[in-house]
Amino acid sequence: MIKIRPQNQSGDAQAIYTLNEAAFAEHGGTEAFDQFREGRDDIVSLVAEDQQQIIGHVLFSPVTLETPNGDIQGMGLGQLAVQPQHQNQGIGSLLSEQGIQQLRESKCPFIIVIGHASYYPRFGFSRGSLHNIACQWEHVPDETFMVLFLNEGDQHKLTGVARFDGL
Predict the structure, then answer these.
(1) Higher model confidence: residue 58 or residue 23?
(2) What is the DSSP letter of 42?
(3) Model confidence, pTM
(4) Is the CB of residue 117 less than 8 Å from the CB of residue 72?
């Protein structure tokens, strides 16, 4: 049985590192995220566990939206990984949904993601450009830079440039 829980146990960091090495092997792992995660208390880091083994991980980290009326803090879905032998079983969706729900309950106004254009819309993400939200990095393809508004009322007043804090 799959259990989703916060990253909070002593061996979690090493297990996540190993998981990311396997899941992102073709991209050379995710050392930047591993370093970024260390010592932070402003992130949401959840793991999927099966028989006390970590088989999935999702990381949400702070994003600042620079709007014409001032900065607004939200979050970015910065990393989603599932062990290759456990992929396509809904584990990534479980992790994403639980993280999104946790952020919704915390009154986070939005989540930004840079990811597969065919995967993230199932959670309600849409292209940032449709809402006049741009990425800090100009080279990111338009169809992969997406936003999810956690309060529908904010949708028309949140515009600007999204900057991933610390990256």
Answers:
(1) 58
(2) S
(3) 0.89
(4) no
